Amino acid sequence: MDDRTYTADAEPGDTVTVAGWVHEIRDLGGIAFIIIRDTTGKIQVKFEKDEMDDDLVETGLDVHRESVVAVTGDVEEEERAPTGVEIVPDSVDVVAEADPELPLDPSGKVDAELPTRLDNRTLDLRKDEVKAIFEIRAAALAAVRDAFRDLGCTEINTPKIVATGTEGGTELFPITYFGREAFMNQSPQLFKQLMVGSGLERVFEIGPIFRAEEHNTPRHLNEATSIDFESAFYDHTEAMDACETIVKAAYEGVAENCQDELDALDLQDEFEVPEGDFPRITYEEALERINATGELDEVLVWGDDLSTEAEHVLGQEVGEHYFITDWPSEIKPFYIKDHDDDADVSTGFDMMHPSMELVSGGQREHRYDHLVEGFEQQGLDPEAFEYYTKMFKYGMPPHAGWGLGGERLIMTMLGLGNIREAVLFPRDRQRLSP
Ligand code: ATP
Ligand code: AMO
């Protein structure tokens, strides 16, 4: 089947077979056209009714839009054709007929709401500007993988069915595992940490995380893609350096490889690779700057988490990617290390896009006694985590790392209004299929 020519490769003078979807049918009377679309572009097929075999004309023009057809014919130059060439067909084969009632219009002439698009993702992805998001996502992840390799990381895959949560008990999806309680993993956190004490030392993972988030929002998914990093002998500042490198690499990969896709999204002029160092501001300074704007109803005090509104206010102030460092220990998880000279302040950091949080990370508590104490302080049962803590008795180096939300990276990079647009088949509170 694949001795066909892609539409983009059809040159005048060639005899070709192109196979693809019927994008458009235009019947002007004596002359009619169908536009065929494949992954490389579109091409016009011309039917001159008086000059062509009736059966051929009938087969070509009775077909419904979005059917799959294979057309064999000569390629000719034609100024008036959308791409400057057209096929004069010798044969038309209807490979897969499409129902005349389409649930959405892939030519984009009729807009569809996001739920309709997600219910019919296959058709939705026939649109250039939708396909472009996923080509860009793939290019960004490829660049991220390369950049991790350049940093000396090994790619790992950790279990997604686990015995304990790590990111707070309320957001776990429980499952039954051969009669035992188990959960879908919220983060590779504990497993990636276990690797820094192994022979691997510096690792990354790109994989799914599962969170039973309370609310349906435009920036939360119940199944998301986490880009995780962890390195032995790194402190939190080195982890932030690595974070900056990876995020910039994602943008650079897209700038280098996705100009057509950026064009399809009308972003060719807007898209910019972030330049310079991302500012690093402390949590305390962040509170001061937010409070100084007077834009929030409440005054933020030490120990408060930043609400979505507070993040927006600060994002407006800073206007570029930035880090918030030195968070209060009490609002960071048990695995984050406190500063040696002030136990109230942690090494935890977040990396922010002006519109939302992209990354959380920090230096980790690698001292066995402190780690077990931390569990108790947060009301967690250290015994349930014994599979993790016991390895800290056998030589666990200082280490640091972070987790970056893959969909949020793409969403903010492309200015998408809803995180669901950056996932093929999103999972949210209402959506379990397709
Ligand atoms: P016939 O060519 O048999 O007389 P017709 O009168 O319907 O049939 P034209 O007058 O040639 O066809 O063209 C109709 C419309 O189609 C015109 O607007 C013309 O510009 C356009 N057209 C003709 N040929 C092409 C082509 N190869 N590609 C794009 N547009 C075309
Ligand atoms: P955190 O819980 O902050 O940290 O998650 C890290 C990043 O993952 C993304 N993210 C989400 N994206 C979409 N939908 C969700 N429901 C969702 N939840 C999280 C965000 C967030 O910044 N173990 C730590 C990381 C670490 O310290 O290494 C963690 O999971 O972009």
Please give the count of helices. 12
For the residues shown, what is the average pLDDT? Answer: 96
**Uncertain residue ranges:** none
CATH architecture of the largest domain: 2-Layer Sandwich
Main pleated-sheet profile: 8 strands, mixed
Instruction: Return the string of H and E elements.
Output: EEEHEEHHHEEEEHEEHHEHHEEEEEHHEH
- Structural category is alpha+beta
Any idea of the CATH topology of the largest domain? BirA Bifunctional Protein, domain 2
**CATH C-level name of the largest domain:** Alpha Beta
Question: CATH superfamily name of the largest domain?
Answer: Bira Bifunctional Protein, Domain 2
- Give the proportion of residues in helices: 25-40%
Cofactor: Mg(2+)
GO biological process, one term: aspartyl-tRNA aminoacylation
Keywords: Aminoacyl-tRNA synthetase, ATP-binding, Cytoplasm, Ligase, Magnesium, Metal-binding, Nucleotide-binding, Protein biosynthesis
Family: Belongs to the class-II aminoacyl-tRNA synthetase family. Type 2 subfamily.
